[in-house]
From TrEMBL:
It comes from the Bacteria. Keywords: Methyltransferase, Transferase. This is N-6 DNA Methylase. GO terms for molecular function: DNA binding; N-methyltransferase activity.
Amino acid sequence: MSNGKHRQSVQRNLIVNTTEIAKMANVSVSTVSNWKRRSDTFPEPVGTKDGKPAFDYDQVAEWLQANNKEFDDNRTRNLVWEYANLVRGKVETTEGMALFITLLHLRKAANEYGLETQWQTLIDGGDRGSWLSYLDAVDAVEHEAGHALSNHVVTYARGLVESVSVEIIRDVVALVNAINLSKIMTAVDMVIDAMGNGRQAYLGDNGSPLYRLMAEMANAWAKICPNPDPTFYDPACGGAFVAMQVALHNPQYRFALADINSFAAVIAQARFFLQFGKNATETIVLNDLIHNDPFPDLKCNLSVVAPPMGLSASSDTGVTDPRWAYDASNGGGRRPAFPSETAFLQDCVFHLDGVGRAFVALRPSFTTGRSFANLRRRMVADGVVEAIVSLPRRQLRDTSIPIDIWVLSKVEGRNHVHLIDCASATEEVVQQGLPVYLAEPLNGYADGKYRWMDVECADILADENISLAPDKWIKPEGMNPKNICLESTEEISEIRQGLDQVDDESNPLRDLPNSLTNMKESRVFTLRELVDSNEAELIRGNTQSVGRDAVYQEDVITPQILSEGMASLTKSRDVGKREHITEPGDIVFRKLGSTHAAVDVEGGHRMSHTVLALRMKGDDWIPEFVAICLQAVWNQKDTPRNIAGQIDPLDMELPVVSLEMQRKLVEIQHAAEELKHLSAAATDYANTFCNAIRFGAEED
């Protein structure tokens, strides 16, 4: 929320229509209309936007502040979306993301290096020569200072100036100049989320569970780092998300980063410079790791790498390279080709110092595949494998395959490996004994519900396949005969309850017609029409304490709560005066991607910023019916989406039908849910019965 303080004027004026003003102030569109009609000082329109009167953003913000109206300062978000719309169809998506971040970097350079006059020349419509002159000035300052904090960005910018229309750059630089310097990292995250979502996510993935877990592991290790002058190493840094997380919490580290992708080098360098300015401590090298060592003399205390998947290297690649200590084949010399991940794995081992840790993300085939049995044998025998953490599917935006994290270190005399299973569902309380740099991140990641055991290196080496898969060694939960008996008792009871409900004569599924006939298409309203006519109110979640890096509180409705069920929620007590609280009967739903909707029967809950509440006015709507319709196929596939693939909730539709028809649909939906629960219980019992056949079952 903003206190509405006066903003410095800029040449790029943002315009907002009445719907956007309503979002700013968390009010209905009709309220904004009343402000316009009743206030002589409300700003005059300066144009139109989406067919509606448009107003100058700064004038609206000043009016809201002057009239004691609380509002969300979404200026930065609006600028980012305006940029995305401006370059759509003119440049490729990845290049559009890099262009915006590059210009943010160059603007920061003006502030850091005293180049404000030259920058202003560009804002005033500088030509190609002015741009090249400015880039030369940045180069000269850094050359004199003896550091290279902008070299990749400057090289990329030179190519842009020579190949992209200067008019496009002029429009973009005006948008960049309108962003407050204090919000510059927010703008970077927003443009990555808007333009990088699902497209080459490694360039700047802000949301993947894998990268967040690896960052937490790295930070937990950095806390206990014994080296007073440590170095972080990532030879496939992408957009440097993990490196940035470590840098923010551990200023003592220096960063040695490399990537083969020039866009990655630009984004990584810009992220560091925009955060730390001329105090940044990273070195970034454009490099093909398979053929060249980016830092031959480096010994690091911490390495985190997620290698590119599925690439191959030829048999003669770096045969004499000292990094390749482990043959990737299973006999007879080097294979005709080998996956490049094996090179990154060995590169990390080579660059680790005697007390350092490396965290490497690999496909499960490296943990269990017979093709890599010899690699595993050599590494386990040498004692460099400290732990294997198996993760479930969908840990990365751009792939659904499961991932394993290899934890590597050079500890003499290692006689066991920590094998940790986070992929299998469990209710067991995790046992103590893992190192803190593994236990703390995993407890947060898996809510303390994962299984692990120490397996002797001798036992692993005696295994025919040298398997490092945790589920190979950890006995599955529930295989104990007493557990099997207990589970079967609970499942049988649940099945009997479900059958009783299905057999109930009042079950609406017992009296279905042969077909649906003579039903006419209903009249529909969009949520925008219902809100504008004051028949409904749309409340946007604004609890900031459940943001990207925070722990979700148990009283806050989040997208995860919506998908898993709201039974675990508690009532909100310590509520900020600006936070929105649900009321009984509110329909809460997520606003991004596929919609999950539910009725908050009790109310009294806060909502995260990605959750909305629809409050129907009057007695013409059954809340459960509305929730069903919000999840209907026509509101999923047919609703317009923005550039990031997100649904505008105001475009969603509700059909107008009688209360009797609404009630009938709700009853059928409830019956369908009961059948779903019965089916799930029967499936669980079939699995338990199968386990009983194999392992037996006995009472405690």
